[in-house]
Amino acid sequence: MSFLTVLPLAIVMVAGPQLLSAIFLATSRDWRRNSALFVFGAALSISAVVTLTYLLGGVSVGGGGESNGILSTVVLVLIVVAMISTFLGREDSEPPKWMGKLEQATPRFSFRLGFLLLGVFPTDIVTSVAVGSYLVANDLPLLDAAPFVALTLLLLALPSIAVVLLGARAETLLPKVRDWMNDNSWIVNEVVLVFFLVLTIT
Q1: CA angle 51, 54, 58 (to 5 degrees)
Q2: How far apart are CA 137 and CA 140, in angstroms?
Q3: Quick one: DSSP state of residue 58?
Q4: Residue 66 neighbours by CB under 8 Å, 6+ apart
Q5: Residues 6+ positions from 56 with CB-CB distance below 8 Å
Q6: Rounded distance between C-alpha atoms, residue 6 and residue 135, angstroms
Q7: Cα separation, 118 vs 40, whole angstroms
Q8: Closest by alpha carbon to 189, among 46, 82, 114?
Q9: Among candidates 183, 111, 149, which has minimal Cα distance to 14?
Q10: 185-201 and 64-88 are packed helices; what angle lies between their axes, rounded to 10 degrees?
Q11: In b/e form, how buried is each residue of 60-93, taking b as 16+ CB within 10 angstroms?
Q12: How far apart are CA 26 and CA 195, in angstroms?
């Protein structure tokens, strides 16, 4: 898989509550362990979904090109409807309530969050399944999923890396980024949907 293919898929994986959670954990009390276990949990769940899809032979739609065309049309319509709904509800858009607990998160909670958020969240599980199916359809080895997994984990680790590299400056910058994403969560959702729209069209 080329970098141009992997990059948008990795961005789709982290855009939204995934990256916001990583920022919260990077500013939490026990940020080193919390961030490390969050990324580790994500690594396990992403790898598991991609591997399982690969071993099961990928996800295909029977009926040839006509069925695939119908499926693509349905997906496009659903994405457009979701984009319109997100825009119309932007004034009432709020981050999930569980995010309020992240500043006092425990390492165990951080691991579970990374595992579930990156393995069960709808956009993430669809993207991971798409990667596994792509490898099967093109007769590529499972190892070719490594760049996708690695780049996704790198993006998730960026907030904690920023803390290590920037030190005190990160303590000022990250809360500002976190607050902006909190206040503009609908924009983040729209960005994710636009990525899906582009990936579906292309």
Answers
A1: 140
A2: 8
A3: -
A4: none
A5: none
A6: 12
A7: 11
A8: 82
A9: 149
A10: 160
A11: eeeeeeeeeeeeeeebeeebeebbeebeeeeeeb
A12: 26
pLDDT digit string, tens, across residues 73-130: 655 666 677 667 666 665 655 555 656 667 678 999 999 999 999 998 877 888 888 8
Tens digit of pLDDT for each residue in 58-82? 655 444 444 445 545 655 666 677 6
Q: Is the pTM of this model over 0.90?
A: no
> How does DSSP assign 106-126, residue by residue?
-HHHHHHHHHHHHHHSHHHHH
Q: What share of the chain is helix, strand, coil (3-state, %, to 5)?
A: 85, 0, 15
User: What does the alpha-carbon distance between residue 59 and residue 54 come to, in Å, rounded to a whole number?
Assistant: 9
Q: What is Dmax (Cα atoms) for the chain?
A: 58
- Could you count the other beta carbons within 10 Å of the beta carbon of residue 142? 15
* Cα 95 from chain centre: 15
